Amino acid sequence: MKNKKNIDKERQMSYDSLPPSVKDSLTEEEKQLFLNAEEWPESLFEKLEEFIIKE
Predict the structure, then answer these.
(1) Phi, psi at residue 47, to the nearest 5°?
(2) Is the dihedral of CA 34, 40, 43, 48 positive or negative?
(3) d(CA 35, CA 37)
(4) What is the pLDDT of residue 53?
(5) In this model, does residue 7 exceed pLDDT 90?
(6) In whole angstroms, what is the distance from residue 26 CA to residue 20 CA?
(7) Are the C-beta atoms of 15 and 31 separated by less than 8 Å?
(8) 0.85 exceeded by the pTM?
(9) CA nearest 1: which of 34, 45, 43?
(10) Which end of the chain is more exposed for a tag (fewer CB within 10 A), N or C?
(11) Looking at the predicted structure, is the pLDDT value of residue 12 above 60?
(12) Average pLDDT for 25-50
């Protein structure tokens, strides 16, 4: 996983724009996956499904 200094700015902006209730529902591990992972676990998709635009 990338370290904190290498967090993608677009992902950080996306995370920051989430409603507080959604951010509060994420574990620290899920937050790090949101910011850094190439692939998200299904549980993270489920928590964020209303914000994901399907292509």
Answers:
(1) -70, -30
(2) positive
(3) 6
(4) 85
(5) no
(6) 10
(7) yes
(8) no
(9) 34
(10) C
(11) yes
(12) 93
Position of tokens 């993608």?
8
- Tokens linked to 31: 């937050």
Burial 19-35 (b: 16+ CB within 10 A, else e): eeeeeeebeeebeebbb
CA angle at 10 for the pair 27 and 24, rounded to the nearest 5°: 20
User: What backbone torsions phi and psi does residue 28 show, to the nearest 5 degrees?
Assistant: -60, -40
What integer best gives the mean pLDDT of the chain?
88
Give which of 16, 13, 45 is closest to 54, Cα–Cα: 45
Length of the chain: 55
Amino acid identity, residue 27?
Answer: T
User: Which position has the token pair 């399907």?
Assistant: 54
- Structure tokens given for 11: 């992902």
